[in-house]
Amino acid sequence: MSESSQESNQKQHIDKELLMESLKNDNIENFRSEFLDLHAYDQASFFMELNEEERLHVYHFLSPEEMANLFENLEIEDDEYSDVLAEMSPNYAADMLSNMYADDAVDVLNELDKDQVVSYLTIMNKDSAQEIKELLHYEEYTAGSIMTTEFIAIAANQTVRSAMHILKSKAPSAETIYYVYVVDEDRTLVGVLTLRDLIVNEDDVMISEIMYDRVVSVSVGEDQEEVARMMRDYDFLALPVVDFQNHLLGIITVDDIIDVMEEEASDDYSKLAGIADLDSIDRNPISAAKKRLPWLVILLFLGMFTASLIGRFEETLDKVAILAVFIPLIAGMAGNTGTQALAVAVRGIATGDLEKEKIMKIISREAGTGVITGTTCGILVTFIVYFWQGDLFLGGLVGISIFFALIVATLAGSLVPLIMHRLKIDPAVASGPFITTINDIISILIYFGIATAFMSYLTR
C-alpha cells in the first residue's frame, strides 16, 4: 500500500474517532465541523454504525434539513425505516421528510404503516405533504411511483436570459438542472434543452429557437423496468413523465433508475433461485425458511414424480442394472444446459434483445445450439462409457440419450421464459430449480424410453 493510501486511511480513522469523541462529549461544534464536511454517503455509513443512544445525539446535532440529506443515502432494509424514524420526535421526522426530495420521501413512506403515513403527512409542511400525497397515489413499480416533481420548466416564448434567471432561482430545490423542460400554458410538454444549450447561446435568443421539440418521454403508468431500459438506450440523465394528454408531471433521474435496476435484478435472481425475496439477508432462520420453503415444497412433489417415473421403468433396471449409474449424469447434463439457456433467455428478455427476434429464429438458433452441444457431449460420453464398461452399444445409448436430452433442455430453457413473457407472466418465475426439475423428468423419459426400446440389444 502506498504512503498516500495509508495517510488517507489513517485520516478516515482519525475522523471517525473525532466524531465519536464529539458525540460522547456532547461537543456539537466539533461534530458539525467534521461531519458536515463528509459526503452524504459517508455520513449515512457512519450514522448506521452508531447505536440508538448515539444516533439520538446526531438528531440533536443536525437540523431536519441536514438529516434529510443523510437519510436519502441510507442503505438499510425496507422494514428498518420505521424503527429509525421512531427514534426521532414526530415533528423532527416530519420536517426531515419535508426536506427530502419528494420521490425519496415517498419511497420511505411506502414502507410504513398507513397510520404512520397519515400521522407524518398531518404534521408535515402543507406544500410538501400535498406533493407527496400526489405521488403516493401512483401504483408501485410504475414511472409515477419513482418520479420526482422537483424539476425546472420554462416557456418557449422567453429568452435565454429570462430562462437562466428562472434556473438560478429554482436550482436549489430542483433534483437536477442538466435538463430544462419547455411547456406551454397548459403544462403540455413541447420541448427540452440542456444546461449547455443555455450557456452557449446568447442572452436574447428565444427558447423556441434552440429547444428540441422531439422529446422522448414516458407515460406515468409505464413499468419501471421499461423506463430503466429507455434510460439505458438513450443515455439520459433524466426522463420526463407525462400523462395521456402529454402534460408534464415529473421527471425520473438516473440515480432512481440505478435503484430500479438493482431492485429488478435482485427480484429476478430471487425467482431464478426459487426464493421469495433476496433483497435482504435473513438473520432469523424461521424467516429465511419461510421464504425458501414454498418452492422447495413444489420441487419436492416434482421430485417425487421423477422418482415414481423411474419406478415405472423398474423392469428395465432389473434387466440392465448398469443403466441406473448414468441417471445422475443425464439428468444433471440436461439440468445444467437448461439453466444456461434460461439465464441467457431471461437476460435477453430483460434487455429487450429477444423481443426484437421472431419466434422461429429463436427456435432455430437454440435448436442448433442444442444439436452442437448434444453431439459433442454425446460422442464424448459414448467413448468414455465404451472404454469404461467395454460395451459400445451401452455407450451409444447413453450418448444418444444425452444428445436428445440436451436439445430438449436447451429449447425448454429458452422457450419457456419467452412464452411466459409473451403471456404477460414474469419470465423469472421459470426459475432455475423449476427448469432443472422439468428437464430431469424429460431426460429420464428419453433415457429409459430409448433403453426400453432397445432392451433386447442390452441383454444379449
Automatic annotation (TrEMBL):
<keyword id="KW-1003">Cell membrane</keyword>
<keyword id="KW-1133">Transmembrane helix</keyword>
<dbReference type="InterPro" id="IPR006668">
    <property type="entry name" value="Mg_transptr_MgtE_intracell_dom"/>
</dbReference>
<dbReference type="Pfam" id="PF00571">
    <property type="entry name" value="CBS"/>
</dbReference>
<dbReference type="InterPro" id="IPR006669">
    <property type="entry name" value="MgtE_transporter"/>
</dbReference>
<comment type="function">
    <text>Acts as a magnesium transporter.</text>
</comment>
<keyword id="KW-0479">Metal-binding</keyword>
<dbReference type="InterPro" id="IPR036739">
    <property type="entry name" value="SLC41_membr_dom_sf"/>
</dbReference>
<dbReference type="GO" id="GO:0046872">
    <property type="term" value="F:metal ion binding"/>
</dbReference>
<feature type="transmembrane region" description="Helical">
    <location>
        <begin position="367"/>
        <end position="388"/>
    </location>
</feature>
<dbReference type="InterPro" id="IPR046342">
    <property type="entry name" value="CBS_dom_sf"/>
</dbReference>
<keyword id="KW-0812">Transmembrane</keyword>
<dbReference type="Pfam" id="PF01769">
    <property type="entry name" value="MgtE"/>
</dbReference>
<keyword id="KW-0813">Transport</keyword>
<keyword id="KW-0472">Membrane</keyword>
<dbReference type="InterPro" id="IPR038076">
    <property type="entry name" value="MgtE_N_sf"/>
</dbReference>
<feature type="transmembrane region" description="Helical">
    <location>
        <begin position="293"/>
        <end position="310"/>
    </location>
</feature>
<protein>
    <recommendedName>
        <fullName>Magnesium transporter MgtE</fullName>
    </recommendedName>
</protein>
<keyword id="KW-0460">Magnesium</keyword>
<dbReference type="InterPro" id="IPR000644">
    <property type="entry name" value="CBS_dom"/>
</dbReference>
<comment type="subunit">
    <text>Homodimer.</text>
</comment>
<dbReference type="InterPro" id="IPR006667">
    <property type="entry name" value="SLC41_membr_dom"/>
</dbReference>
<dbReference type="Pfam" id="PF03448">
    <property type="entry name" value="MgtE_N"/>
</dbReference>
<feature type="domain" description="CBS">
    <location>
        <begin position="211"/>
        <end position="269"/>
    </location>
</feature>
<feature type="transmembrane region" description="Helical">
    <location>
        <begin position="322"/>
        <end position="346"/>
    </location>
</feature>
<dbReference type="GO" id="GO:0005886">
    <property type="term" value="C:plasma membrane"/>
</dbReference>
<feature type="transmembrane region" description="Helical">
    <location>
        <begin position="394"/>
        <end position="420"/>
    </location>
</feature>
<keyword id="KW-0129">CBS domain</keyword>
<comment type="similarity">
    <text>Belongs to the SLC41A transporter family.</text>
</comment>
<dbReference type="GO" id="GO:0015095">
    <property type="term" value="F:magnesium ion transmembrane transporter activity"/>
</dbReference>
<feature type="domain" description="CBS">
    <location>
        <begin position="147"/>
        <end position="209"/>
    </location>
</feature>
